[in-house]
Design brief:
GO molecular function, one term: GTPase activity
Low-confidence stretches: 118-141, 146-156, 168-175, 177-200, 294-300, 331-338
Largest sheet: 6 strands, mixed
Enzyme class: hydrolase
Helix content: 10-25%
Distance between the termini: 35 Å
Subunit structure: Monomer.
Mean pLDDT: 76
CATH topology of the largest domain: Rossmann fold
Number of helices: 9
Radius of gyration: 32 Å
Oligomer: single chain
EC number: 3.6.5.-
Pfam families: GTP1_OBG, MMR_HSR1
């Protein structure tokens, strides 16, 4: 299964149904009065955090999510059915960012507006305004030239009643008939000023790039787009001075917006290190995670999670460890796999710096450690004060054994303990895991949890 941790989607709540203009028609009841029902409310769009999901893969191939609209009101006081709520499930740790307002179907995504449009290639001429394709109207299933088109007389004029219905947003089948279910009065007196431009509530104000919400608890719900309110039928406009109101309200428009979803893994410990220091080997040795392992850099291309179990006297102790792709110099600026995966370390509570001997010229263990700390510092302030643990891997090799004493002596001057380990043989891993567990307990106490 592909690991997708960033997608852009469009969400649109349903529009509210129009209220109806109708009259009570009953035997022996003269002048029955208004009986137009209300339109149904549009359906909301709700994001739901789901612990069963591990990637945003499903949303990558389904970009548009539209909730159903409310049905229009009917006669005899019948209210239209409301649109059902549309639930969009996302993995735990999904951050929701605002990208722009979605105003209609088939519109250009807002982030494409930042791109410079391509220039017209040589040899292709663009016709000036007024030339080229003619405007064509479809009336009663036949093509008719648009009236008033420059240079040509109009062959036919569109029915004014149909044009009025189109302006009111009537469905295609209603336009074809030329009449609404409630008669001409509903068409003539539908409130235009309070129609599609009015929403159920004052729309929320976001700037592009604003963080709307972090969904990090299983079952957490966020109503991201509210459905439009159904219009009131003419029964609501009856008064002592107007016993036969012939007007109704149009339903309001549902909210719509473009979103950017970013998945940030939820883990207790994040393994940080250069490529090919044995991060994948370590997580496969201490957990049941089975990442790809190879003797070449950047074997790991997607984050891996592993659950580590430690024995306890009264209960089993567990922690989640994350292995992210190796960092390189300049990762905070996007080099290598860069900040695409640095953000997966943001939610970790403890960082494990994994060092290992490397034959590359200019590579030294302490220089590697300082470079990793520098990349984390440049990426953002969220890593300041976070507990660190330093481990030296590959002590099963001659090069690793030779580096233990010198590295431990240098780190002792910085008050940093060193844990020599071998991910291949398992030597030293038990002591390392206990040290990580103690750091997690100290972090919980510091937060008061």
């Amino acid at each position: 299964m592909r690991f997708i941790d960033r997608v852009r989607i469009q969400v649109r709540a349903g529009d509210g149904g129009d209220g109806a203009v109708a009259w009570r028609r009953e035997a022996h009841v003269p002048k029955g009065g208004p009986a137009g029902g209300d339109g149904g409310d549009g359906g909301d769009v709700v994001l739901v955090a789901d612990a069963q999901l591990a990637t945003l893969l499903d949303l990558k191939y389904r970009q548009h999510h539209h909730a159903p609209s409310g049905r229009p009101g009917g006669g005899a006081g019948k209210n239209g059915r409301g649109g059902e709520t549309l639930e969009v499930h996302v993995p735990l740790g999904t951050a929701v960012y605002y990208e722009g307002e979605a105003t209609g179907h088939g519109e250009r995504p807002p982030w494409l507006d930042d791109e410079t449009p391509d220039e017209t290639p040589e040899g292709i001429s663009v016709e000036p305004d007024g030339e080229g394709m003619d405007n064509v109207w479809i009336v009663d299933g036949e093509e008719v030239e648009a009236p008033g088109q420059a240079g040509e007389p109009a062959e036919a004029e569109a029915d004014p009643e149909r044009v009025e219905l189109i302006e009111l947003g009537a469905p295609a089948e209603v336009v074809a008939i030329g009449e609404t279910i409630s008669g001409g009065a509903q068409r003539r007196h539908m409130r235009r000023g309070t129609g599609r431009s009015r929403r159920r509530e004052e729309p929320r104000s976001y700037e592009r790039g604003d963080l709307i919400c972090d969904l990090d608890a299983d079952g957490e719900r966020l109503t991201i787009a509210r459905g439009g309110r159904g219009g009131r039928g003419n029964v609501h406009f009856r008064s002592s001075t107007n016993r036969a109101p012939d007007r109704a309200e149009a339903g309001t428009e549902g909210e719509g917006m473009w979103l950017r979803l970013e998945l940030k893994l939820l883990a207790d410990v994040g393994i940080v290190g250069y490529p090919n220091v044995g991060k994948s080997t370590l997580i496969s040795a201490i957990s049941r995670a089975r990442p790809e392992i190879g003797a070449y850099p950047f074997t790991t291309l997607v984050p891996q999670l592993g659950v580590v179990s430690l024995p306890g006297d009264t209960y089993e102790r567990t922690m989640v460890v994350a292995d992210v792709p190796g960092l390189v110099d300049g990762a905070s600026e996007g080099r290598g796999l860069g900040h695409e995966f640095l953000r997966h370390l943001e939610r970790t509570r403890v960082l494990l710096h994994l060092l290992a001997p490397d034959p590359t010229p200019g590579r030294e263990l302490l220089r590697d450690l300082d470079a990793l700390e520098g990349e984390l510092r440049r990426y953002g302030p969220m890593f300041e004060g976070r507990p660190r643990v330093v481990a030296l891997n590959k002590i099963d090799t001659t090069e690793g054994q030779e580096l233990i004493k010198a590295t431990r002596r240098a780190l002792r001057k910085r008050n940093i303990p060193l844990f020599p380990i071998s991910a291949v043989t398992g030597e030293g891993t038990d002591a390392l895991l206990e040290a990580l567990w103690r750091r997690l307990q100290l972090a919980d106490r510091a937060r008061g949890t």
